[in-house]
Amino acid sequence: MRSAVAYVIMFLVMVGFGGLGYWRGGLRLGLGLLPLVCATVLLWLFGGIAYRIDAFRNIGLVWPGLILMLLGLAAGYTGQFFLRRKLPKDRHQYDRIAGAAVGVFMAVVITWLGTVYYWVYQVSKQHDVSSTTTGLARTLNGGFVRWIPGVGNGSDAMMVLVDIASADEGVQQMVIADLGLDELRDLPEMQEVLNDAEIVDAIERMQNGNVFAFMTLQKHPLVLGLAENPDFMAAVERLSLKDIAESIRYAEEGGLRNEGDGDGGGEGGG
């Protein structure tokens, strides 16, 4: 029943945004998305270069991307200002059909963001994730969102991060040990990070849903020092977040199989 409700809500959102697009027209609706498109493309094209520039990287882990996004938004709004004057007053039928298509596109992305947000909310509050939420998020990401240029890489990374965060703590610790990541705890830079009161407080506030705590964390000198440690960088290059998520998923599936075997054995023995 909950699964049916989730898909009904997605259908209603698609109908609503499709109707909005048909009413507004493709040119006007697309022009409204121009700043976001410019920001995404700019980050996609020059993100890797910006993160190699020390002047940008040293002011915070997220600032190179934010600077590029702000430049893209500025360019998009500038283009929007001049192009809006040239739009025809009449909306032709093909323009309305294109608008409906763009509206459905927006609805799918918004639905995906909503399911991921609810997924994160469940993890942060009770560590009990609805299979409907995760299933719908994975379906939309795998079938649509990940193929959007400039967005797909970020959506895949977001899904992987939530997979890791929603895993059982015991499974996380086991996978960390199996992959040799527990050795990173012995690094002096890691010890400084773990023992810093301001960092611990920021992490706790992030776990409670405070987004601004991450802005404090990502520019902390100790965090930046850890990110530039050669051993830490080697571990990051050796293992991607996807590798860690796959190891966690494999460990969880193995645990579920063992529980199933144990239950079966108990019934047989009785």
Structure description:
The protein starts with a helix and ends with a helix. The radius of gyration is 23 Å and the shape is globular. It is built from 15 helices and no strands. Helix 7 packs antiparallel against helix 8. The protein is mainly alpha-helical. The C terminus is likely disordered.
Number of helices: 15
**Distance linking N and C termini:** 35 Å
Q: What is the overall shape?
A: globular
Describe the largest sheet. Answer: none
Low-confidence stretches: 265-270
Radius of gyration: 23 Å
Based on secondary structure, the structural category is mainly alpha
Residue share in β-strands:
under 5%
**Estimated helix fraction:** over 70%
Quaternary state reads single chain
Number of strands: 0
- Average the pLDDT over all residues and give the rounded result: 76
Element pattern in H and E:
HHHHHHHHHHHHHHH
